């Protein structure tokens, strides 16, 4: 099984003060690695961690150890990402969320490992709910 990982989960894995820290660690321990993600998710994660007093070193360590792999090419997927963001502009959909929805289309058997309830609203391929791992 392949898993697509979101910002909130990465933050929760690194920041022990988050409410979801224990849940995220337990789930991550039972799931296969590597987790797939996008550069947008890494950017968001680094921003949130910095805001909360952490640096991005652990993100780099996760990538170096093979736990995280960036698996989305913006140049190849930009039209799909743009269409998703247009469709969900009233939610609104962030660029990072669009990346994960697109990844869910590209890897249809991969659940999205997230804390974000917006993924219950989003649809891949216009009609299909996304498989989720969430609390």
In short:
It is built from six helices and seven strands; from the N terminus they run E-H-H-E-H-H-E-H-H-E-E-E-E.
Topology:
Blueprint: E1 3-5, H1 7-14, H2 21-30, E2 35-37, H3 39-51, H4 57-64, E3 68-70, H5 74-87, H6 95-106, E4 112-113, E5 123-124, E6 128-129, E7 132-133
Helix pairs in contact: 1-2, 1-3, 3-6, 5-6
Spell out the helices and strands N to C. EHHEHHEHHEEEE
Strand runs, count: 7
What's the number of helices?
6
Main sheet: which strands, in order across? 3-2-1-4-7
Distance between termini?
A: 19 Å
Oligomer category: single chain
Poorly predicted residue ranges = none
Mean pLDDT: 96
How large is the radius of gyration?
A: 14 Å
| Helix-strand makeup class | alpha/beta
Q: What is the 3D shape?
A: globular
State which percent range the strand residues make up.
Answer: 5-15%
Structural overview:
The strands form two sheets. Strands 3-2-1-4-7 form a five-stranded parallel β-sheet. Strands 5-6 form a two-stranded antiparallel ribbon. The two termini are 19 Å apart. Helices cover 48% and strands 13% of the residues. It contains six helices and seven strands; from the N terminus they run E-H-H-E-H-H-E-H-H-E-E-E-E. The chain has helices at 7-14, 21-30, 39-51, 57-64, 74-87, 95-106, and strands at 3-5, 35-37, 68-70, 112-113, 123-124, 128-129, 132-133. The protein is globular, with a radius of gyration of 14 Å. With 135 residues, it is an alpha/beta fold. A hairpin with a 3-residue loop joins strand 5 and strand 6 (128-129). Helix 1 (7-14) crosses helix 3 (39-51) and helix 3 crosses helix 6 (95-106). The model has no long low-confidence stretch (mean pLDDT 96).
